[in-house]
Amino acid sequence: MPQLVEENIFQSVAEQLDENRRRNRQGRRGAKYLLQGLLACGCCGYAYYGKPVSSAGRKAEFEPRITTAKERLARLQIELKSQVDQEAQARDLRLVVDTLATFARQIAAGLDQADWNAKRDKNG
Fold first, then answer.
1. Tens of pLDDT, residues 76-118
2. C-alpha span between 54 and 60 (Å, rounded)
Protein backbone atom coordinates (compact mmCIF):
# COMPACT_ATOMS: atom_id res chain seq x y z
CA MET A 1 0.00 0.00 0.00
CA PRO A 2 1.40 3.45 -0.94
CA GLN A 3 2.28 5.91 1.83
CA LEU A 4 -0.37 8.70 2.16
CA VAL A 5 1.49 10.89 4.69
CA GLU A 6 5.17 11.58 5.00
CA GLU A 7 6.90 9.74 7.85
CA ASN A 8 7.90 12.90 9.78
CA ILE A 9 4.30 14.27 9.71
CA PHE A 10 2.95 10.87 10.78
CA GLN A 11 5.45 10.78 13.66
CA SER A 12 4.55 14.35 14.75
CA VAL A 13 0.81 13.55 14.79
CA ALA A 14 1.43 10.35 16.75
CA GLU A 15 3.43 12.30 19.36
CA GLN A 16 0.64 14.90 19.67
CA LEU A 17 -2.00 12.20 20.12
CA ASP A 18 0.15 10.56 22.80
CA GLU A 19 0.54 13.91 24.61
CA ASN A 20 -3.22 14.50 24.40
CA ARG A 21 -3.85 11.11 26.03
CA ARG A 22 -1.27 11.81 28.76
CA ARG A 23 -2.71 15.20 29.65
CA ASN A 24 -6.29 13.97 29.45
CA ARG A 25 -7.41 17.44 28.47
CA GLN A 26 -11.12 16.89 28.72
CA GLY A 27 -11.56 14.54 31.64
CA ARG A 28 -14.69 12.41 32.09
CA ARG A 29 -17.26 15.23 31.79
CA GLY A 30 -15.60 17.07 28.92
CA ALA A 31 -13.74 20.37 28.88
CA LYS A 32 -15.19 22.84 31.35
CA TYR A 33 -13.08 25.75 30.12
CA LEU A 34 -12.36 26.76 26.54
CA LEU A 35 -8.58 26.37 26.70
CA GLN A 36 -8.52 23.67 29.35
CA GLY A 37 -5.30 21.66 29.13
CA LEU A 38 -4.13 23.31 25.92
CA LEU A 39 -1.57 25.53 27.67
CA ALA A 40 1.39 23.95 29.40
CA CYS A 41 4.04 25.31 31.76
CA GLY A 42 7.32 25.92 29.98
CA CYS A 43 9.34 24.67 32.97
CA CYS A 44 7.60 21.48 34.07
CA GLY A 45 5.28 20.80 31.12
CA TYR A 46 2.23 20.53 33.40
CA ALA A 47 -1.01 21.62 31.76
CA TYR A 48 -2.76 24.72 33.06
CA TYR A 49 -6.32 24.26 34.23
CA GLY A 50 -9.30 26.37 35.23
CA LYS A 51 -10.43 26.68 38.79
CA PRO A 52 -13.83 28.00 39.86
CA VAL A 53 -13.82 30.84 42.37
CA SER A 54 -16.59 31.30 44.89
CA SER A 55 -18.35 34.65 45.21
CA ALA A 56 -16.55 35.11 48.54
CA GLY A 57 -13.25 34.58 46.75
CA ARG A 58 -14.13 37.13 44.09
CA LYS A 59 -15.13 39.62 46.76
CA ALA A 60 -11.83 39.10 48.58
CA GLU A 61 -9.97 39.57 45.31
CA PHE A 62 -11.70 42.76 44.16
CA GLU A 63 -12.73 44.43 47.43
CA PRO A 64 -9.31 46.08 48.07
CA ARG A 65 -9.26 47.47 44.52
CA ILE A 66 -12.80 48.81 44.84
CA THR A 67 -12.01 50.39 48.21
CA THR A 68 -8.89 52.06 46.82
CA ALA A 69 -10.81 53.33 43.79
CA LYS A 70 -13.58 54.76 45.99
CA GLU A 71 -11.03 56.52 48.23
CA ARG A 72 -9.30 58.01 45.20
CA LEU A 73 -12.63 59.16 43.78
CA ALA A 74 -13.52 60.86 47.09
CA ARG A 75 -10.14 62.67 47.14
CA LEU A 76 -10.59 63.82 43.54
CA GLN A 77 -14.11 65.08 44.27
CA ILE A 78 -12.79 67.11 47.23
CA GLU A 79 -10.01 68.56 45.05
CA LEU A 80 -12.53 69.42 42.33
CA LYS A 81 -14.84 71.20 44.79
CA SER A 82 -11.90 73.16 46.19
CA GLN A 83 -10.81 74.18 42.71
CA VAL A 84 -14.34 75.23 41.73
CA ASP A 85 -14.64 77.27 44.96
CA GLN A 86 -11.29 79.00 44.31
CA GLU A 87 -12.31 79.86 40.75
CA ALA A 88 -15.62 81.29 42.01
CA GLN A 89 -13.77 83.42 44.60
CA ALA A 90 -11.35 84.69 41.95
CA ARG A 91 -14.25 85.55 39.64
CA ASP A 92 -16.06 87.42 42.44
CA LEU A 93 -12.88 89.30 43.37
CA ARG A 94 -12.33 90.36 39.73
CA LEU A 95 -15.91 91.63 39.63
CA VAL A 96 -15.42 93.70 42.82
CA VAL A 97 -12.11 95.14 41.57
CA ASP A 98 -13.64 96.01 38.18
CA THR A 99 -16.62 97.66 39.89
CA LEU A 100 -14.33 99.71 42.17
CA ALA A 101 -12.18 100.74 39.18
CA THR A 102 -15.27 101.89 37.29
CA PHE A 103 -16.49 103.81 40.35
CA ALA A 104 -13.07 105.49 40.77
CA ARG A 105 -13.06 106.59 37.12
CA GLN A 106 -16.57 108.02 37.48
CA ILE A 107 -15.57 109.95 40.62
CA ALA A 108 -12.43 111.31 38.91
CA ALA A 109 -14.45 112.40 35.87
CA GLY A 110 -17.07 113.99 38.14
CA LEU A 111 -14.47 115.96 40.10
CA ASP A 112 -13.05 117.46 36.92
CA GLN A 113 -16.51 118.82 36.16
CA ALA A 114 -17.36 119.90 39.72
CA ASP A 115 -17.43 123.54 40.72
CA TRP A 116 -14.73 125.24 42.80
CA ASN A 117 -16.50 124.62 46.16
CA ALA A 118 -16.85 120.89 45.55
CA LYS A 119 -13.15 120.67 44.59
CA ARG A 120 -12.21 122.64 47.70
CA ASP A 121 -14.16 120.28 49.93
CA LYS A 122 -12.33 117.37 48.33
CA ASN A 123 -8.87 118.89 48.87
CA GLY A 124 -9.42 120.48 52.20
1. 999 999 999 999 999 999 999 999 999 999 888 877 676 666 5
2. 10
